[in-house]
Design a protein that fits this description.
This protein folds into 2 domains: 71 residues, 3-Layer(aba) Sandwich (Rossmann fold), CATH 3.40.50; 106 residues, 2-Layer Sandwich (Dihydrodipicolinate Reductase, domain 2). The protein is built from 5 helices and 8 strands, in the order αβαβαβαββββαβ. The strands form 2 sheets. It has a 5-stranded mixed beta sheet with strand order 4-5-3-6-7, covered by helices on one side. Strands 1-2-8 form a 3-stranded parallel beta sheet, sandwiched between helices. The longest helix is centred in the N-terminal third of the chain and has 14 residues.
């Protein structure tokens, strides 16, 4: 993200529309990118994930959360990934939060015998990150309800899975205005 921000700003200054898949840009950096995109009348695009299946998982999760607001996210990636949780997990949680009232999940008296055992907390949702060799990029969103669970899962078996989304973004970026975040904005 440190290098990408400078590259994006340079591209926008030269009226070149960046298509970015790096996660970790801060809200302040995104605001600066949006301002530069407007000032240069040059659209910019950022996606936490270019796998169309992962984007559908996010969209379906937002829909499911309207009816099943108790949810946990498990994301699994290769052991060389630097950030945790993944940008996809954070974006999924943010999309769910659009339709879900924040609330604490689990037993009100629960405690962690080992710190972090319940994962990160995003408005009461727990996000768990796994880093192991053999994985590429995988995510499960598990919803719990009275007498039932719903699991939505996406698996990227290799990096080729990201290419259809990259191509889609590259073809559509010039038709956008300002900064667009999320491949879901490009799907019909």
């Amino acid at each position: 993200p440190d290098v990408v921000f400078g590259n994006v700003m340079t591209a926008l200054a030269h009226k070149t529309s960046p298509v970015v898949g790096t996660t970790g840009l801060s809200d302040e950096q995104k605001a600066e990118i949006a301002k530069a995109a407007e000032a240069n009348d040059t659209p910019a695009f950022i996606a936490p994930n270019f796998a169309i299946g992962a984007v559908l998982l996010m969209v379906m999760s937002r829909q499911a959360a309207k009816y099943m607001p108790d949810v946990e996210i498990i994301e699994l990636h290769h052991d060389k990934k630097l950030d945790a949780p993944s940008g996809t997990a954070i974006q999924t949680a943010a999309m769910i939060a659009e339709v879900r009232k924040a609330h604490k999940q689990g037993n009100p008296d629960e405690f962690e015998k080992l710190e972090g055992a319940r994962g990160a907390d995003y408005e009461g949702m727990h996000i768990h990150s796994v880093r192991l060799p053999g994985y590429v990029a995988h995510q499960e969103v598990i919803f719990g309800g009275l007498g039932q669970t719903l699991t939505i899962r996406h698996d990227s078996m290799n990096r080729e899975s990201f290419m259809p989304g990259v191509v889609l973004a590259a073809k559509k970026v010039r038709s956008l205005k300002g900064l667009t975040v999320g491949l879901d904005k490009l799907l019909d």
